[in-house]
Amino acid sequence: MEAREKEVLNLDEASMLFQVSTKTLLKMLRDEAIPARKIGREWRFSRTALMEWLASGNSLDYAAAEAGVKEYFDQLAPEYDETRVKCYGSALRDILLEKAPVAESAVVADIGTGTGYLAKALARKASHVYAVDVSPEMLAVARREMAKESLGNVEFIEGDANELPLADAAVDMVFANMLLHHIADPGLALAQFFRVLKPGGQVVIADIEEHPHAWTKKEKSDLWQGFDRDELAQWLTESGFVQVKAEELGCDCCTTGSKGQMARIKVLMATGVKPVA
Ligand SMILES: C[S@@+](CC[C@H](N)C(=O)[O-])C[C@H]1O[C@@H](n2cnc3c(N)ncnc32)[C@H](O)[C@@H]1O
Question: CB under 8 Å to 82, separation ≥6 — which residues?
Answer without folding.
Answer: none
